[in-house]
Every structure is written in C-alpha cells, then in structure tokens.
C-alpha cells in the first residue's frame, strides 16, 4: 500500500558547496558521495524531472520544497525562476507549491528579495544570535566574520515584506550565554526562531558540542524571556511545537514525531537519500534518473528508516513522562541502545515549562491577548 502522507522534499541544488566554512558544518564533506567528479549545479533537465516526480508523488493539494545546501543561493536566481515556472507547469489545478529557502544570507540582494516576495517563498536565515559567537563559528571563505552580512540580509528581506525565520545554532559556548544570544535574536526576529543544538560525535567537536546541562539551562532561560517579553511577537519552534502537543495536537517537527522518513533529500546529481542527516551510501534510495521518487519514498528501506525512530527507542524512553513531546528526538543523536544525547537537558526544560504553558493556553482560551498573558506569566515565574 502506498504511503500517502505528505512529505517535504529537501533539495540541494549545489550539493554541499558553500561560500562559508562554519566550524560545526555537518554537510560540507557530503560531496564525496556525488556521482559527479565535482559537484556542480543541478541541471535544468534534472530539476524538471524532480519537480514533475514530486508533484506525481505528493498527495496534494500542497507540494513542499525546502531549498537547502551547502548554500542554495549559489545556484543563482535563474535556477529558482525556472523552478517556479516548472512548478506552475506541473501542478494540477487547485494545487500549490510551498517553497522554503534556507540561506546564510551572503548573496541576498534587492533582486533576490523581490523574487522571494513575489513568489511567496518562506525564508530562513542562519544567524547565531550573539555577534561574537556567530563570527567565531561562521566565517566566510576568507576567514572573515559574517554576522553583519547575515543580519543585513534579514533587514533587507523585511524591508521587502519578507519576514524570515532565524535559524540559530547553539554551541556549548553559546549555551552558556543565553541572554546575549537571545538579545541578538530578538532584535531581528519577527516570525519564527529555531534553536539547533550542536552535537558532534568526534573528539575534534567536543569543544563545540553543547552539554545536556547547558542545553537545559539555555532552553529554560530563553523560554522565560520569550514568555515574559516576546510572546505574540514571534514564535520559537520548540516551544510552539511542545505547546501544540500538550494541547492535544500532533507534532509537525520531525524530532518530536513518533516516526520519521517524510523529509527525503534530493542531491545535485539526482540521488535521493533518506534524510538530511543520513546522506551516505547506506541511506541512498536511488536516483531520479533511473527510479521514480514515489517508489523510493514507498520503498521498504525508507519505511524501515522511518519506523526505526520508534522501534529503536531505549526502554527507559518508553517509561519517560515526557515521551509524548520528545519521542526520543532525532535518531542521529541516539547511539544504539542509548537515550538522546541531550536527554537530561530536555527533561529539565519540559519540567520547567509544563505548568507555565498550561496556564498560557488556559488564558488564551479565555480570550486574553499576548500582552496580558505576558504580564501574568511574569507573575507566575516570580512565584516558581
């Protein structure tokens, strides 16, 4: 039986190529798996195959694309103009495409902004909050800091009416400076903020990897500031998704879902992989030059990959009071037989936030606005 659940296709139009050299990048070396001697830009022929097959595989009425990298703007604006043309050509009447561009912002100029606005792209800009943290970890090819250029891209997009999301990675150093990171984020945020913990499983990454203790402290502090200062102004992904689950809804964030496998990756050579964090020969599902995307998504290998998230949960997770909002998090951070690497930090956050979130939701149901709820939450936190 075909799996008719919606999926999000993460497209890497230039593979792992990038105009930055972030210290914690997990994708920069993935070019070695390309069938091309040297990664280039996805050809227009391959782009057409990909969009046509994505539309054919999607249950509709929305077909979802995330344009990712490496740095996806290196593909050039003409590439995305062609992508939009192809989407319009192949979408059935009444269907629409959702496009999301994840960028470091270095190439975003007025022409890009106008295109993204006119074609209703959602945009995420990587920006690590505090200038010092960002510039230390996110240099360009010449070793120069990029904070001002990333922040400038956010401001430029907003002038054109595009409210970008902020993607903020959290190293161990950043986690120890939550107020500095938060101040940098809140100055620019208007839509959605995503905090991404850095976990690198090798000795060279130990200094960058956030500890469970610092991750828990960081989440608790940023949650307190969000709920008392910025509730209603912008959302934080983890906080919003956790509240959704506690309100009886279904998680949309893959790390908080019971299973995964509905966010495959399309590389610049047409290869399809199970997930962005599992781009390797073991998780290559095939290539759209030879196989259909729908068949790869419905393959036994991809089904097993998705179900393994649930089936490989350690016994301790099944007894955890926070299982409904955690689901063991991402399998990439769960060594065989072990809990998620940041388990204790996450548990600390859930225990801290539960009562406050329930009160927030109660007041919201009573029709109270964000300002009134922020005031009440300040009093609630004072009493905890």
Write the layout of secondary structure elements.
Layout: E1 8-11, H1 44-57, E2 62-67, H2 77-90, E3 96-103, H3 110-118, E4 122-126, H4 131-137, H5 147-159, E5 165-170, H6 172-175, H7 178-188, E6 192-197, H8 212-230, E7 235-236, H9 237-246, E8 265-266, E9 271-273, E10 284-287, H10 293-297, H11 300-311, H12 315-318, H13 323-326, H14 343-365, H15 370-383
Helix pairs in contact: 1-2, 7-8, 8-14, 8-15, 14-15
Polypeptide structure, described:
With 384 residues, this protein is α/β, with parallel strands linked by helices. Helices cover 42% and strands 12% of the residues. Strands 7-6-5-4-3-2-1-8-9-10 form a 10-stranded mixed β-sheet. Strand 8 and strand 9 form a beta hairpin. The chain is globular, with a radius of gyration of 21 Å. The model has no long low-confidence stretch (mean pLDDT 94).
List keywords for this structure.
10-stranded mixed sheet; 10 strands; 384 residues; alpha/beta
Task: Give a summary of the structure in a few sentences.
The chain has 384 residues and is α/β, with parallel strands linked by helices. It has helices at 44-57, 77-90, 110-118, 131-137, 147-159, 172-175, 178-188, 212-230, 237-246, 293-297, 300-311, 315-318, 323-326, 343-365, 370-383, and strands at residues 8-11, 62-67, 96-103, 122-126, 165-170, 192-197, 235-236, 265-266, 271-273, 284-287. The chain contains 15 helices and ten strands.
């Amino acid at each position: 039986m075909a799996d008719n659940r919606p999926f999000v296709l993460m497209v890497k139009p230039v593979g792992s190529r990038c105009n930055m050299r972030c210290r914690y990048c997990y994708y920069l070396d993935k070019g070695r798996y390309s069938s091309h001697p040297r990664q280039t830009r996805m050809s227009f022929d391959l782009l057409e195959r990909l969009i046509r097959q994505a539309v054919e595989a999607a249950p509709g009425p929305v077909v979802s694309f995330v344009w990712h990298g490496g740095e996806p703007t290196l593909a050039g604006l003409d590439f995305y103009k062609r992508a939009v043309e192809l989407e319009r050509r192949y979408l059935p009447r009444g269907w629409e495409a959702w496009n999301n561009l994840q960028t470091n912002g270095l190439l975003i100029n007025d022409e890009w902004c106008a295109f993204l606005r006119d074609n209703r792209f959602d945009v995420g800009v990587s920006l690590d909050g505090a200038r010092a943290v960002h510039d230390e970890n996110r240099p360009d090819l010449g070793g120069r800091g990029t904070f001002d250029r990333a922040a400038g891209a956010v401001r430029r997009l907003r002038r054109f009416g595009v409210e970008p999301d902020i993607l903020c990675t959290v190293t161990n150093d950043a986690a120890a400076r939550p107020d500095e990171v938060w101040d940098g984020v809140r100055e620019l945020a208007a839509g959605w903020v995503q905090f991404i913990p850095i976990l690198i499983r090798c000795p060279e990454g130990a200094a960058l990897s956030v500890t469970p203790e610092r991750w828990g402290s960081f989440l608790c502090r940023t949650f307190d500031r969000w709920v008392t200062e910025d509730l209603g102004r912008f959302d934080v992904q983890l906080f919003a998704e956790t509240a959704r689950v506690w309100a009886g809804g279904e998680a949309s964030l893959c790390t908080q879902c019971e299973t995964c496998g509905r966010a495959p990756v399309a590389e610049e050579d047409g290869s399809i992989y199970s997930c962005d964090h599992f781009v390797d020969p073991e998780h290559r599902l095939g290539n759209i030059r030879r196989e259909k995307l729908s068949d790869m998504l419905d393959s036994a290998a991809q089904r097993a990959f998705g179900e393994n998230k649930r089936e490989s949960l350690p016994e301790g997770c099944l007894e955890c009071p926070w299982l409904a909002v955690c689901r063991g998090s991402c399998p990439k951070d769960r060594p065989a037989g072990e809990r998620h690497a940041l388990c204790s930090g996450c548990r600390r956050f859930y225990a801290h936030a539960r009562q406050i979130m329930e009160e927030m939701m109660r007041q919201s149901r009573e029709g109270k606005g964000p300002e009134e709820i922020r005031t009440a939450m300040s009093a609630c936190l004072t009493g905890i």
